[in-house]
Design goal:
There is one protein chain. This protein is α+β, with helices and mostly antiparallel strands. 39% of the residues lie in helices and 19% in strands. It has a five-stranded mixed beta barrel with strand order 1-2-3-5-4. The structure holds fe (ii) ion (2 copies). Residues 195, 219, 252-253 line the site of one fe (ii) ion.
């Protein structure tokens, strides 16, 4: 865990910390005595300018590398900058991703506890056992706690998958109070598991990006494989229940052009699709409001996923 973050740096402070090198421009010194470097350092809280008068220090360091720097903060042209005394590359393995990526600002453990609270409501022994095998697996839980729900579109921050999953579960609970005939155990189980493929769809070390597995298979296929693998190790799991659960994962995007090989073919699957879609789109609109706050605008930029401009109203 880092102890110094960009947004806390002030003029006069000494810096001894790890950042991502996010900009590097080498320049000739005017006196002809070698190079200096215009730099920028970043972490999850933002970025700050930097300068190194000894450009040779930077020859083995590239943009995107993690670097440990020592230096001092001063103000130049009204902006803070770090004057670098020493800089060295840090291996990716030594880095804690949480220091460098946007993350859920609330308590992610509370989100996990609430999701487990929904799990506890599942009475069907097979579905309950299936969920338990996931949540007793510490590797799964750690990934599920950390994963983003998207690269850009919605919940694109560490913990976003769990936050989105909990919203889906809460919406499903409300819908069940209207459509009482639906299978509540199936809805909760599919609600919890519908996006678990995202724990492998994304890589989230320096920035949130698709993994090779994510690019080639996508979270719908990865998630259905994860569920099928667990069920295969559970003798006596009813075939019909397995098919329904698999179908709900495969059809939750609703249409083939949105990545689902099947359209929802029974009520629980249809409900999951609409709830998933609702949460994602409401979150996109919410983000559009946040992005334009304080800019005195009535309409957002064109939103490529929602395919419209959002009315922001009067500020
Ligand atoms: Fe999804
Ligand atoms: Fe989802």
């Amino acid at each position: 865990m880092k102890s110094q973050f960009v947004d806390e740096l002030r003029a006069g402070q000494t810096v001894k910390e790890t950042f991502v090198l996010s900009k590097k421009i080498m320049k000739d010194k005017k006196d002809g005595g070698g190079f200096y470097a215009i730099l920028e350092f970043s972490d999850r809280s933002g970025s700050i300018d930097g300068i190194s008068w000894d450009g040779e220090n930077l020859s083995h360091i590239s943009v995107g590398d993690f670097v440990f720097i020592t230096g001092n903060v001063n103000e130049y042209g009204g902006r803070l900058q770090v004057v670098v005394n020493a800089i060295s590359r840090v291996e990716d393995e030594e880095i804690d991703a949480k220091d460098f990526l946007p993350q859920y600002t609330g308590d992610i453990d509370e989100v996990l506890t609430d999701i487990e609270g929904f799990k506890a409501k599942v009475k069907d022994v097979h579905l309950r056992r299936l969920l338990d095998t996931f949540f007793e697996d510490s590797d799964f839980v750690e990934r599920f706690r950390l994963a983003p729900a998207a690269k850009r579109v919605h919940h694109a921050y560490l913990g976003g998958l769990a936050v989105h999953t909990l919203s889906v579960l809460r919406l499903l609970e409300n819908i069940r109070s209207v459509y009482e005939f639906v299978n509540s155990d199936l809805l909760i189980t599919a609600g919890i598991l519908h996006d678990i493929g995202k724990i492998y769809e994304y890589e989230y070390k320096k920035n949130i990006d698709l993994s090779n597995r994510g690019r080639l298979l996508g979270h719908i296929v990865i998630g259905s494989e994860m569920v099928a693998e667990r069920i295969a190790r559970m003798p006596g799991f009813p075939e019909d229940l397995k098919l329904k659960l698999m179908h709900m994962i495969l059809s939750h995007h609703g249409e083939t052009e949105w990545g689902s090989p099947k359209q929802p073919l029974f009520p629980e699957a249809l409900i999951l699709h609409f709830v998933d879609n609702l949460d994602a789109k409401v979150e996109m609109m919410k983000q559009a409001f946040e992005k334009h706050r304080g800019k005195n605008r009535q309409w957002s930029d064109y939103h490529p996923y929602l395919e419209r401009e959002i009315y922001l109203g009067e500020e």
